[in-house]
Write a structure and sequence with these properties.
- This protein has 230 residues and is an all-alpha fold.
- It has a single domain, classed as MetI-like (MetI-like fold, Orthogonal Bundle).
- Helix content is 80%, strand content 0%.
- Helix 2 crosses helix 6, helix 4 packs parallel to helix 8 and helix 9 packs antiparallel against helix 10.
- The protein is globular, with a radius of gyration of 20 Å.
Length: 230
């Protein structure tokens, strides 16, 4: 019970260490999701609107990558960024940038796969109209992405939730360095093993609050979009 009280006291007092970790976690996850959105949504739209040999295999692989083990992503990025790796000269390993890259790779298949399914379903409704209007490929992608924005925002929030809750990937490529690459999830794991329960519980409370807020936002956006459609 005393640990719980101490955890709330840390939050209420605005503990500098605790909120520095929260800020870094949010910055890394938001940056990763932004990169995944920029790449994943157009990729999903293109897969939904184009037909080419091997497309089915690409879709299967993309859907499979939605469940890719995070530690595999972390190991892959580690090998790419290590000194002997192809990107080692940039010195990104054990930095926040490495964590952003790893989380972006983790979230990208989720956004791309969900965008493909959403836009493919919408394309079946818009096909005749957009074809009759002579809208080109770029216009089709833009129109369908915009009209499916509420569904895609829900996917985006799901991707952010996946990134924010990740432990293994960021620990591998970030090194869990105090004051530099230590995130909420890695700190919770470390401090729990050390017996520093107030800090671990404080971060756990904040993380749960963030996850609940994300799900509430996703639910609210869905209800609002359904009301507008109705």
């Amino acid at each position: 019970m005393s640990e719980g009280v101490s955890a709330w006291q840390l939050i209420a007092s605005g503990d500098a260490t605790l909120f520095a970790i929260v800020r870094l976690s949010l910055a890394v996850s938001l940056s990763a999701v932004a990169i995944a959105v920029i790449v994943g949504l157009p990729l999903g739209a293109l897969l939904a609107l184009t037909r080419f040999p091997g497309r089915s295999a690409v879709v299967v692989v993309l859907n499979g990558f939605m469940g890719l083990p995070p530690v595999v992503v972390g190991l892959t990025v580690y090998l790419l960024l290590s000194r002997s790796g192809p990107l080692g000269e940039f010195g990104l390993l054990f930095t926040p940038a490495a964590m952003v890259i790893a989380q972006a790779l983790l979230v990208l298949p989720i956004l791309a796969a969900l965008a493909r399914q959403t836009i493919e379903d919408l394309w079946s409704e818009y096909h005749d109209e957009l074809t009759a209007m002579g809208v080109g490929p770029a216009g089709r992608v833009t129109t369908l992405l915009w009209d499916s924005r509420f569904s895609l925002v829900t996917a985006l929030l799901a991707g952010f939730g996946r990134a924010a809750a990740e432990v293994g990937t960021v620990m591998i490529v970030g090194g869990n360095i105090e004051g530099f690459t230590r995130t909420m999830t890695t700190t919770i794991a470390l401090e729990t093993s050390k017996g520093n329960l107030p800090l671990a519980m404080g971060l756990g409370i904040i993380l749960i609050g963030i996850v609940l807020a994300i799900n509430a936002a996703a639910w609210g956006i869905r209800l609002w979009s359904e009301q507008r459609a109705g």
